[in-house]
Each structure stands twice: as C-alpha cells, then as structure tokens.
Amino acid sequence: MKRALLLLPVLLLCFAVSAQETYKITYHYFREGAMIKQDPVVVFAQKGSSINSKLSQISGQTRYPAEMSQYDYAKNTVTRYTLLTANQVISMKDTTSLKRYSYEKLPDQGNMLGYKTFKAKTSLNSNSIEIIYTTDLGIQAAPNDVGQAFGLVLEYKVNGNSGLRAASIEKLKSLPVEAQLPKNSVLQDELSYKDIIWKRKFIQIPIFQNQQICFQPGIASDSIMRFAEGTVILKKVKIPYVSLNSQAFIELVQTSNGDAYDRTGSVFLIAEDQKQSFLDGMKDSVNVLPKYLDGNGQAFPGMIRTEGFSPVYELMRFFTPFGVKHFNDRVKLKGKTWQDSAMYRQEISEFLPELAGKEVYIGTYIGNYDKGGHKVSLELTIHPGRSIYPEGTKVMSLFNTTNILEMAGQEYPTMYGHEKGLEFEFIVPADMKNVKLRYISTGHGGWGNGDEFNPKPNTIFLDGNKVIQFTPWRIDCGSYRLYNPVSGNFENGLSSSDLSRSNWCPGTITNPVYIDLGDLKAGKHIIKIHIPQGAAEGTSKSFWNTSGTLVYQ
C-alpha cells in the first residue's frame, strides 16, 4: 500500500505536465505592410518553454537543412537542432542568445488579435528592431530570439518596413507529435554547428587542393594532369545535375611557393562542343591546333574559333601578387602586416549549361619561370535559386589570346601590333537572341612605354559595324599593397604594385565586361578587336590577353 501511495505524486506530476496549456502561433513574413510568400514560422508554446519550427517541417514537407529551436526560460538557454537529412541531426546548446539584447520599453501599443499589447525596441547589426508583445496568455514565445523575455511576441519589425507578424494563435490540448524534437542528435560546439549548416546549403566541388604550379621541365603528374612544364594543371571533374536557376562561383586561393613576381593567371574550362578541343593541343602539341595568322603572317595556334575547333572558356582572369606569404618575412615595415594568401572569387553562372550534370575539364594556368612557383586551391560552389540568367541561356567560346601553353611553344599574342588586330569569321549554327560578348582584356609588356602602363582603347566591330570603344584601365592598384610584400619600392615613395595598369593589379581579378550585340542570325559573322598595341622595346614586347565568349538565348 505504501508503494502505491509513493507512486501517486509522480502520476499527478505527469498529468500536470501533459495537461499544460499549449499554444500554436503561426507567423507570416511581411514587407511594406503586405504579407509575402515565404515559409511561415510556427511556434508551439507552453508555460516555461517554446519550440520554433517552420510550416514546411510540421506539414511533412521538410526542406533540408531544417532547424528547430527549443527555448528553456528557467535556464535562459536555447537548444538548436538541425535536420541535415531525415536521419541525420546535429544540435548545440546556446547560452548567450537570450542575453544578447538590451531593450527600451515604449508606451502601450493597443490591441492585436484581441490581446492587449506593448512595444519595445532594440538593435541588431545596426538595424532597428521593434517588437509588439502581449502578456495576456502568460507564456513566452517569439518567431526568433528577440523579445523572448517579455511575453508572447506578436510582431517583429526590422527598420520599420519588414519582418514577421502573428497571423493566428490556436489553443491546443497538448504538444502535437509534429512538434516533438528530433532524437539522437550529435552535439556540436557553436562554430562547428554553424559551419556544418552553412556548407549544407550549397554544393561544394573541390578541384585542386594546395597544388603546385611551377616551371619544372619533365615534372611528373600525380592525381592531376600537368602541361607546359608544370605551368598548367588540369583535372576532369564530375559536376552533379543542378537546376540552371542557380548561381555558380569559382574560388581560387593562391600563395607564392618561391616566385616573387606578379604573374598572369587564368582558370579555364575546356570547350568540347566541336570535334577538336584545346585538350588535343595540350596532350599532343600546340601545333595541331588551328592557327590564326596576323597581319604580318605570324601564326598563333589555338586562340580563335574555327569550324571544328573551340578555344577554351576563360572562367576567371587573375594576377598573382609579388611573393605573397613566401616572402612575407623578407620586408618589415611599420604599420604593414602582409596578407598570407590571395583569394579570388567570381560568379560564373552563365557557364552552368556547360557544367551541370557533366564531366568537364577545368584547369589553371600561371605563367612563371620558377621551380617553386605557386600553390593554389580551387573550388567550384553552386547555390540554388536566384540566377540572373533566363532559362535557355547558352554560351559559345569565340577567342582566347592568353597563351596558356606559353611554356609549350604558344606565342605571346602580339597580333594587335598590326592594323588588322584580331579579325576572324565564325559561324552561328542557329539564330541567337539577346547576345552579349563576355569580354576580358588586359595589356602587358614593355617598360615605361609599354602597354602595361599606358591606356589603350579597345574597339570591337561586328560584321563591319563598331559596337563599342572603351579603355580598360585600373587606378586602384594601391589598395592591394598588403598582398605584395616584395613589390619594388621607388624613390618617390611608390611601390610597383601601386601603379595603375591596363585593367589589372597584382593580387586581383580582372572582371569581364558584357557587351550587347543584339540578335544574331544563323550563318557567318565577322568579329574584329582593334587595340593600338605599342612597338617592342628591344627584347620587351607589348601584347594583349583577350578572351571572348558569347552568352545568348
């Protein structure tokens, strides 16, 4: 009998817990006073605790990764759970979020959804936050961490024009099954937890990991392919199928591994839309590729599109700094803390039709004559949604005069030294709409009189008509001094890396420009690029690295 009496308080306690009043609050997003279509936040609240989720999760349409948060008001903590998949869950204990904000209480607001309300404000990352809350229900809850201590937050407004607003409050008999927290989660520290979630939101495709690009005749290949005495590396990469309504980015991290100079670099994709590709010239000889003859009769293989051959797509043009990392300890200056690497990141979403669901060859070139050379890591990331390119966008490689196979005999592109410039015929196989020329141009060579340091106009003609004339030039090179520890210093207080240049700076990307060409009919067309390239100074030649890709529907 005593045993039964001892169990009675426990049973009563269990009944009291299960009989707690439970509320389901649904919050909708709004902007400028109007509700917007976005996955609503759903909160289940009981006295002393609440659980935050999304409508998609509780309705069985979970979009991974999906987070739920449990608020414990007695302990002033938040436990966050994220479902990475249906069977994989991570979690973390957050003991600081609810203590992070300081509030200013404002006069009574009035009524909302039939409840008397009050108002308070705080700030978050320089944003003004206002909340409207009620204490009528005797519970604490909110659509996020802000205002949890005051009661039930009915509206969360950012900078006076957007936020979350309670659309409905339902009283339930108990906590429903769909609101139960995930089991068997793997506890993480805060930084690891956030890093895992962030990386699950997009696709990461590593291409090169700390690979050397150098000048070593006879250098052996390992897990990647090497060409032009080690100055070009190449890898076959399998890209998963993704919606073309996505955004793609290429990111390269580079350090010096012995080379002290600023060098031209290029990340490229082998175009495989015709019978012959640039890969044939890499594997066999650059001389097997079709040649462009300039006005002086000099031959430049593998640089223009012909019937049967496509040059490479240039994804990103970059320029190495003077000796970043490797030479950081050689020069010590007050107030200068040298960077330990150069990072280049650029959107390449227009190339997704050539990437998604395919096996492709992606490579990197850095022109140098140093045995140590450079170290690079290259990664492609693909992020779902929000592409600026309409459905049906395609690309076609036209020209690339950067002599990627320089150390395998491909000549410097000096064709602009003749009035003819770069001029050739290409075939459009079917009508193209809304055509843009994705054009990259940088000038090089010479000393004080060379094209590297003198502005030169670029003029583009299509079918004999001038499309555009502009002068590619960079005046911001001094912004990147901390990437250039061994840049030469001059008597006037400037360093070599400070000097303005023909559309490039040591340690930066050269962004493409997008030139409208209108609609192109199927058939033959002629493109001409004219640049008044300077004359050679002794053994020093001026030249222009240019690349062009058609982007069209």
UniProtKB/TrEMBL annotation:
<dbReference type="Pfam" id="PF09112">
    <property type="entry name" value="N-glycanase_N"/>
</dbReference>
<dbReference type="Pfam" id="PF22252">
    <property type="entry name" value="PNGase_F-II_N"/>
</dbReference>
<keyword id="KW-1015">Disulfide bond</keyword>
<dbReference type="InterPro" id="IPR014784">
    <property type="entry name" value="Cu2_ascorb_mOase-like_C"/>
</dbReference>
<protein>
    <recommendedName>
        <fullName>Peptide-N-glycosidase F N-terminal domain-containing protein</fullName>
    </recommendedName>
</protein>
<keyword id="KW-0732">Signal</keyword>
<feature type="signal peptide">
    <location>
        <begin position="1"/>
        <end position="19"/>
    </location>
</feature>
<dbReference type="InterPro" id="IPR043022">
    <property type="entry name" value="PngaseF_N_sf"/>
</dbReference>
<dbReference type="Pfam" id="PF09113">
    <property type="entry name" value="N-glycanase_C"/>
</dbReference>
<dbReference type="InterPro" id="IPR008977">
    <property type="entry name" value="PHM/PNGase_F_dom_sf"/>
</dbReference>
<dbReference type="InterPro" id="IPR015196">
    <property type="entry name" value="PngaseF_N"/>
</dbReference>
<dbReference type="InterPro" id="IPR015197">
    <property type="entry name" value="PngaseF_C"/>
</dbReference>
<feature type="domain" description="Peptide-N-glycosidase F N-terminal">
    <location>
        <begin position="204"/>
        <end position="382"/>
    </location>
</feature>
